């Protein structure tokens, strides 16, 4: 789920400050989100700000949804593991899940009928060798000593994978939601996955 390939390291949305050496390539919100991981460096791969999600077609029996992801920010810790970030996407999963972004979107659905995912296609895939994700970690609050509390994550061990890719699916249905009488299917899209067989991230 990506547009035409672009050279790694390009793009990026603004600059950050603080967070240690090698973090100036990332915006402040990324460094703040990764602050609990003691980031040692941060780098933009591709064009992280080039993100869009669109319903390409809609019919009575289904819809086609496209997610375009131009790149990501990768924050490395002292062990060399990375946490990846994409604007408009969130972390999702258990503490032992990989720290990779997921885009959650709502698609109109029919009340009284169950939704199913028919097919998923990944286009223009790009590989980033040597990038291994950290585990998401257990959420917690820490007191930095200035009278405030700061959200952080306690280190966890990444769950062993039973297959080649983590997460296993590039897209999955995560239930349904209602707004009044309107029903929506909840669709989770994972544009960035870890290829455990080749030790690389794939976008």
Radius of gyration: 18 Å
Share of residues in strands: 35-45%
Helical content, roughly? under 10%
**Strand and helix order:** HEEEEEEEEEEEEE
Structural class: mainly beta
Shape: globular
Neighbour order of strands in the largest sheet: 4-5-11-10
Distance from N terminus to C terminus (CA atoms, Å) equals 7 Å
Strand count, sense and barrel status of the largest sheet are: 4 strands, antiparallel
Low-confidence regions: 1-22
Count helical runs. Answer: 1
Mean pLDDT: 81
Q: Could you characterize the architecture of this molecule?
A:
With 203 residues, this protein is an all-beta fold. Helix content is 3%, strand content 43%. The protein contains one helix and 13 strands. The chain is globular, with a radius of gyration of 18 Å. The protein starts with 27 loop residues before the first helix and ends with a strand.
């Amino acid at each position: 789920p990506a547009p035409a390939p672009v050279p790694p390291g390009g793009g990026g949305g603004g600059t950050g400050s603080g967070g240690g050496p090698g973090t100036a390539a990332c915006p402040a919100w990324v460094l703040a989100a990764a602050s609990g991981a003691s980031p040692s460096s941060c780098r933009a791969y591709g064009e992280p700000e080039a993100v869009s999600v669109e319903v390409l077609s809609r019919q009575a029996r289904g819809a086609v949804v496209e997610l375009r992801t131009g790149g990501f920010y990768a924050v490395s810790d002292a062990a060399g593991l990375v946490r990846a970030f994409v604007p408009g996407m969130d972390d999702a999963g258990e503490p032992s899940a990989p720290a990779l972004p997921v885009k959650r979107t709502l698609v109109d659905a029919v009340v009284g009928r169950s939704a199913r995912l028919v097919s998923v296609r990944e286009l223009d895939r790009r590989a980033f060798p040597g990038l291994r994700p950290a585990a998401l970690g257990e959420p917690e609050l820490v007191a930095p000593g200035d009278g405030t509390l700061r959200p952080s994550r306690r280190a966890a061990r990444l769950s062993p994978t039973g297959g080649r890719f983590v997460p296993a699916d590039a897209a999955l249905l995560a239930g349904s939601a209602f707004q009044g009488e309107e029903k929506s299917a909840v669709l989770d899209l994972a544009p960035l996955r870890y290829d455990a067989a080749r030790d690389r991230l794939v976008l």
